[in-house]
Amino acid sequence: MAEEASPVRFGIVGCADVARKVSRAITLAPNATIVAVGSRSLDKATKFVASNGLPPNAKVYGSYEGVVEDPEVDAVYMPLPTSLHVKWAVLAAQRKKHILLETPVALSVSDLDKILEACRSNGVQFMDDTMWLHHPRTTKMFHFISDPNHFGRLQSVHSTFSYGVTPYFLENDIRVKPDLDALGALGDIGFYCIGTILWASSYELPKTARALHKPTYNDAGVILACAASLSWEDDKVATFYCSFLSDMSMDIVAMGTKGSLRVHDYAIPNQEKEAKFSTSSNSDWVELSIGWAPNPSEHVVHTDLPQEALLISEFARLVGEIKYNNTKPEDTWPTISRKTQLVVDAVKASIDNGLEPVQIQD
Amino acid sequence: MAEEASPVRFGIVGCADVARKVSRAITLAPNATIVAVGSRSLDKATKFVASNGLPPNAKVYGSYEGVVEDPEVDAVYMPLPTSLHVKWAVLAAQRKKHILLETPVALSVSDLDKILEACRSNGVQFMDDTMWLHHPRTTKMFHFISDPNHFGRLQSVHSTFSYGVTPYFLENDIRVKPDLDALGALGDIGFYCIGTILWASSYELPKTARALHKPTYNDAGVILACAASLSWEDDKVATFYCSFLSDMSMDIVAMGTKGSLRVHDYAIPNQEKEAKFSTSSNSDWVELSIGWAPNPSEHVVHTDLPQEALLISEFARLVGEIKYNNTKPEDTWPTISRKTQLVVDAVKASIDNGLEPVQIQD
After folding, report:
1. Is B91 in the same domain as B235?
2. pLDDT tier at B26, thresholds 50, 70, 90
């Protein structure tokens, strides 16, 4: 008889700002709890527990090792600089911890493969922290773009992710430091644009990536803004733009043979509990081409739990299945992460080779 | 003393379907009237007058010459296949007719230059039939993207224009015939995408155009769908997608350093009398990055006259100025047409050279 399921016990490895949001999500998820927090500074870990409403009995460690080695930790959430992912995620997997890894998952697919191989060989679940995939709006949108009568075959998709950062960010944030997050905006937010494009194409890997212009770099050579196109063997084409230097945007404009989809806040909805998108299907001109019929439709999707809590809940469900029912880790999530990273790598290669097209090979 | 202004007298040269819409617009515009209609078939011209509510005393001609040579015609509207534009627009200009030319204006900038030179040397006004530029929504949107505090400098713009055509269209329409409209979708609707991009960049000509994938062609080698990117000397980048094979779309997503603009029906609003767009300015995350503040804003712009009647009204105003006040033709409109055609030519060249970048030179 299976052991009775109790909440999955999370350890937080690193107290980056995003860890506050994810800690709240773990607290909100019904099947997860926080049992340990580690930082390079014990003081920082202690303050993190106190100031973010974490369980007062959560253990605090002045090191990442403390959490990774703690036998009471089932799963680790790792909001570490990307350059540290291989070391700490591999070590955690070896200690049989399930891994929820902050994005971008790795600096290259070869790095990611080390992490995924460690997860595979240790039988632990891997998931990256792409929250929007867990929003019920995303499920509804995917249902629409999978509908052969209302959307048809995907023809084109454009995606953006941008936000205008502060001068302080440009000087100090890990996302612009070559030794910490060398992919800069391409990793931090281009990863999401690429993820939306793969999502819209039902994860059919594109054949070719090409960067569209010389990216904007900081003095250390880290990308602050870039654009690229992806194309497939058939007639599908995708473009994206990501930037730390533009107004906030998170757009998807996806066009199929019979319908189209638009969303403007895919990664983080404007509001936590309700999210919008619009669709158009089989539209035609009215007489004299002075209007459309039918007009596009607006949709609103409500959610009680925010998308990050739904992510935690799904991750904890998979961990619970493994822990209590001896199932195997679910391969869907690492596969999505890996395809995304493959495309990130190809775009980076195209940027580095002077905008020449780069073949994407699995 | 100036002659008293009376409505500008239009002759319609060709009875294509779009001529019905423009004839209605001429009828709606307070300063314009239709005095002649010519078709290769007298019967077709006669039926056109009768079935479209045109003035019963409008003259009908079984030829284009009839209209172009008619001394009572001030201005001609030419909805002819693009391959006929040079011949008929040049002839009309030589007969001192002001020219309202249907889009795409020409098959190449060298063709267009013949038309523009004829207009210049004969002192007649040239304007192409890009209606959306005359909608009050467009003025409001331009005001927004010109605002240094709410939009800032343009960083990226994506534009689409697509509609799913019928099997009949794919077999019979002039827009897919190599001898009539050899640019296919690139001319018919790519022209509009490029126009929006130039508009968003305040008509700063891009430096480079590159096609993004092998276009979809029909059996005769005419483009049915294509995509391209444009880039400037600075960090701006633009992309567009146009297609006869996708659901109807007319999107602009423009991002500046401080704001962004979205419109989904720029070319032909969903509804004739009111049109929407949305803007976002200086948005930031709320605490914990679980939402935006401020949220994007929706705007609705009403218009009593449809955009095509506003175009006619503006064109007729310029013609009236020349006719009654001896002013010179306004150079803004031909300049916009020519810049657009320059970019169309560059995209076509990139398509034809296997997706290599093409420099855009004036």
Report:
1. no
2. very high
Residue A4 confidence (pLDDT) above 70 = no
DSSP states along B200-227: HTTTPPPSEEEE-SPPEE-TTS-EEEEE
Where do runs of H (alpha helix) occur along B11-61?
Answer: 17-28, 42-51
Cβ separation of A291 and B268 shorter than 8 Å? yes
Quick one: A19 and A113 in the same domain?
A: yes
Pairing label, strands A8-13, A75-78:
parallel
ipTM: 0.95
Q: Count of CB atoms within 10 A of residue A335's CB?
A: 13
- Would you give the distance in Å from CA B213 to the centre of its chain? 25
Residue of B148, B326, B159 whose CA lies nearest to B239: B159
B175 in reach of chain A (CB within 8 A): no
Provide the 10 A C-beta neighbour count for residue B119: 24
Residue A2 has pLDDT above 60, yes or no: no
Q: Is residue B292 part of a domain?
A: yes
- CB-based contact (8 Å) between B248 and chain A? yes
Residues of B whose CB is below 8 A from A289: 18, 21, 268
pLDDT in tens, A239-268: 999 999 999 999 999 999 999 999 999 999
A178 with A251, same domain: the answer is: yes
Statement to judge: residues B92 and B156 lie in one domain = no
pLDDT band for position A31 (cuts 50, 70, 90): very high
Interface A-B, measured as beta-carbon pairs within 8 A, has a size of 210
- Output the DSSP codes for A79-108: ---GGGHHHHHHHHHHTT-EEEEPSS--SS
Cβ-based neighbours of A68, under 8 Å, separated by 6 or more: A11, A13, A38, A76, A88, A91, A92, A95, A97
Residue A285 phi/psi, 5-degree rounding, is -75, 150
CATH of the domain at B238: 3.30.360.10
Mean pLDDT of chain A, nearest integer: 97
Total domain count, chain B = 2
**Domain that includes residue B172, residue range:** 134-307+341-359
Name every chain A residue with its beta carbon within 8 A of the beta carbon of B278. 264
Are B34 and B10 in contact, with CB atoms under 8 Å apart?
Answer: yes
